[in-house]
Amino acid sequence: MSETYKAIEVRKPGEFAEVRRPLRDPGHDQVRIRVEACGVCHSDAGTVEGTFRDITYPRVPGHEVVGRIDAVGSGVRGWQVGQRVGVGFLAGSCGYCEFCRGGELVNCRNQENTGIHHDGGYAEVLLAKASGLMSIPDDLSSVDAAPLLCAGLTTFSALRNAPAKAGDLVAIFGIGGLGHLAVQYARYMGFEVVAIARGADKAELAKKLGAHHFIDSAATDAGAALNKLGGAKVILITASGGKTVAETFKGLRPEGASVVLGVGPEPIETSSADLIFGNRKLHGALTGDPATGDATLRFSVLSGASAMIETVPLEQAPAAYAKMMSGKARFRMVLTMGR
Ligand SMILES: [Zn+2]
Ligand SMILES: [Zn+2]
Question: Is the pTM of this model over 0.90?
Answer without folding.
Answer: yes
